[in-house]
């Protein structure tokens, strides 16, 4: 029974900590699937966190906070989209610039907001009946916040769109072979703009989650590198929304366990566990043949498309 | 005869120094911070003190730079002295010692003070305000409040300063509740809310029901409150983060040091020649540390009834430690480390050197303890 | 009626590149001016102060040079990796492992004094190179994406150093604080005059630029790197071994970052301390330094100096005007946005033509 309790406690925390990672990863999957590499996740997340916090603080309504966080995250991603799609700049630098800019701007504007706890937040709640299910009940349906379900819902929705609908085929073809897609009459800039925007919106929500629910306060730099973990998880999940769930929650579990296991294992060893896992797991996955075929990034990732030159 | 000459020389130095400074009329002090001033911990507290100084002394002007990397401190001092014409420079982190000492040698006529360091020169003093006594008082209350006999502690780095605090806290917990344990988790960061949050959660899952911590945010207080559990604030007034669940905490008054030091520099009592032995060590009796979740409130009244007679014990101990004679100190023997070795003998009181270099975990501490003596 | 006419330029002239770069910085200054105004600071006065304190006096110039040393080494190494389309995001970790190797050499190797500094650089290079090669092997043998491995290896390197300074390498001189002991005096890199510039590392940086320039332009390896960078498939048909080429690329790229780490610990810190204090994100800024050089190793000298200047300007903005330290990032982000967007414009010649 002891081990059951451990699994329940670990996964419960994995859901809470992994949700912003999941949201960010889902967004980045869409962005990259359409062929845009956006390294600005950290910047978009922190912008979302800051606006989410300030809006909630002022209006007293967390939902407006999430909405504004999403919009500002999306708006930030449009800078990257404009630079990458219209000006065809080096996407790596543009993304890094967005990260720096987001961290910097929120740090400068957020000065006066630090050290003020948020009075309103989204309450944790349990789902009646469902919480009675053994194991799954206490993990997923007891004392969780609604964003956890929204995250999982997004993953399912985005998976269906990407793999079961013609929109998904459109997105994937733009990322794999834009020349052919173009010949088929697909509006490549539009698709890429939309996908980058989705990426920004989800990163913004992920950031707002941190400042509204996870830790209802604002501090500059509070995303503390989560955006970079998102970049790694995107690749780890092989650009697949359902794998993103697995990746984010395993990462979350290991993060939690790195504290839980401290009485038995050296803390320094434990802290590298999630990172080591992210490196090693793809190695083992690689043994599997069907997975190996999918290992590659979208073929046109990071390459600007232009009709005249191709 | 030689002594008289020396004395006269000293007086001349002091006076010329004083006249030199008075002639300027203004004194300019530079503050170098290790973190951002917006956090709720160490740097924020120093910056509050800087503002108080500036408002108190009309002759004082200050500049500061935040988030200075340890390796760049010497360059920042250069700029403070050359460009900003600072007369006094405060470096507020242990990690700045190398740069501070090098700069003190480079600018022998300027005054320096280095926080939490141990190296001094004729123009560089050291100062520190410490909380271990307040942690002990928090421990007394935590010991009274725990029902599971498990108290949780989220620690930043396993260094003597934090170890001293955890040990003092544990001494308090065990004094009231000999069956209790203090469970420790390290997050290897001074500021990292996500780590602090999951560390707190892991402690809750391990059965802890009262919390104290060393981390520069109010995360632990918030998480404990979410789970309707009591906690103790750290460094800044964190009462507003959880008015119903914060019991007490530690608060600092850096301004006591800064006001005293700057006034003495201005008066010419401290010069760039006589700081070799100037070391401030501020505890409860100096007023450098204060007990409470916010200034002027030693114990949250909402918790007084649950604390019962521990209330009086805490207030009595507080009074004893505030006494100029410091009638009581938590590190009074016999104290045993958790391997059973006696570290402070019966009736002895741990001295300054002992406190600064604590590596052991006292009896009652549970969890990893990097660098524990065998 | 005036009409805008846009013509394509094949290669932008250096004059254009230079003036556009200056214009970008100017634009960034202009936008930042509003933040200054928001803080009640006169922007013009602020800019004059910044100019004087960065390039306007000798001290500022030495500071810029000093701060550009690690950026130059990281940047030029990364440039080589990027030329081969190997997305090394791990210069940060490679730098840290270099500093670890160097620290071992300085504190624990027991070598005679005159061998210490050479050994610091050799082991610094080795530390960075080994860290870089792990990702190479994982990529070539197990097909694990290098963005993941290099990025995650940064965190692992950080934690290894944390472990060492809290555990086996904790210095007994440090009163229990998590630092190694100070390096013995012979292991300190000499500095140039009164400045902080540890010139041996600066020379290493310039040598690295020269070597990488020669590799790219004159050697078979350089040719192979370019082919792989263009298309891995083409490289395969041309009989180029991907693993072998990337092996050498990452040996050099990681090694350069390692040298930067060795220079930082032996030239600035003289001890190993918290990883966040050793590398101030040099590995990440190095990515930008490399990209802005547009594939030309020699240009990394200029781009690293640009970032050195931005760092110094950031110090001035904080100290003299009391702005939050994050202002540096706003400033950097802004300059980058303008710089890369102008990149596009540079390839076009814009003129106005009167039309009936």
Largest interface, with counts of residues having CB < 8 Å to the other chain, equals: A-C, 45 and 44 residues
Secondary-structure element order of chain C, N to C: EHHHHHHHHHHHHHHE
Number of helices of chain B: 12
Low-confidence runs of chain C: none
Strand content of chain B: 15-25%
Taking all residues together, what is the mean pLDDT of chain B?
Answer: 90
CATH superfamily caption of the largest domain in chain B:
Response regulator
* Number of separate strands of chain B: 15
Number of strands of chain C: 2
Q: Pairing-aware structural class of the strands and helices of chain C? A: mainly alpha
Work out the helicity level of chain C: over 70%
Tell me the CATH topology of the largest domain in chain B: Rossmann fold
Structural notes for this entry:
The complex is a heterotrimer of chains A (310), B (374) and C (356). Chain A has 310 residues and is mainly alpha-helical. Helix content of chain A is 71%, strand content 0%. Chain A has helices spanning 2-33, 41-59, 62-86, 91-109, 136-141, 146-164, 166-176, 178-183, 188-214, 226-236, 241-260, 267-271, 273-285, 289-294. Chain B has 374 residues and is of the alpha/beta class. Chain B folds into 2 domains: 26-129 and 254-282, 3-Layer(aba) Sandwich (Rossmann fold), CATH 3.40.50.2300; 132-251 and 299-366, 3-Layer(aba) Sandwich (Rossmann fold), CATH 3.40.50.2300. Chain C has 14 helices and 2 strands; from the N terminus they run βααααααααααααααβ. A two-stranded antiparallel ribbon of chain C has the order 1-2. In chain C, α1 (14-38) packs across α2 and α12 (282-292) crosses α13. With 356 residues, chain C is mainly alpha-helical.
SSE layout:
The complex is a heterotrimer of chains A (310), B (374) and C (356).
Chain A: H1 2-33, H2 41-59, H3 62-86, H4 91-109, H5 136-141, H6 146-164, H7 166-176, H8 178-183, H9 188-214, H10 226-236, H11 241-260, H12 267-271, H13 273-285, H14 289-294
Helix pairs in contact in A: 1-6, 1-9, 1-10, 1-11, 2-3, 2-4, 2-9, 2-10, 3-4, 3-9, 6-7, 6-11, 10-11, 11-13
Chain B: H1 2-24, E1 27-32, H2 42-56, E2 60-65, H3 73-82, E3 88-91, H4 97-106, E4 111-115, E5 124-129, H5 132-145, E6 150-155, H6 160-176, E7 181-186, H7 193-205, E8 210-213, H8 219-226, E9 231-233, E10 246-252, H9 254-266, E11 279-282, E12 289-291, H10 304-307, H11 310-322, E13 335-336, E14 342-344, H12 352-356, E15 365-366
Parallel strand pairs in B: 1-2, 1-3, 3-4, 4-5, 5-11, 6-7, 6-8, 7-15, 9-10
Antiparallel strand pairs in B: 10-12, 13-14
Helix pairs in contact in B: 2-9, 3-4, 5-6, 5-11, 7-8
Chain C: E1 2-8, H1 14-38, H2 43-54, H3 58-83, H4 91-108, H5 113-142, H6 146-166, H7 199-218, H8 220-230, H9 232-237, H10 242-269, H11 275-278, H12 282-292, H13 299-321, H14 327-346, E2 348-354
Antiparallel strand pairs in C: 1-2
Helix pairs in contact in C: 1-2, 1-14, 2-13, 3-7, 3-10, 3-12, 3-13, 4-5, 4-6, 4-10, 4-12, 5-6, 5-10, 7-8, 7-10, 8-10, 12-13, 13-14
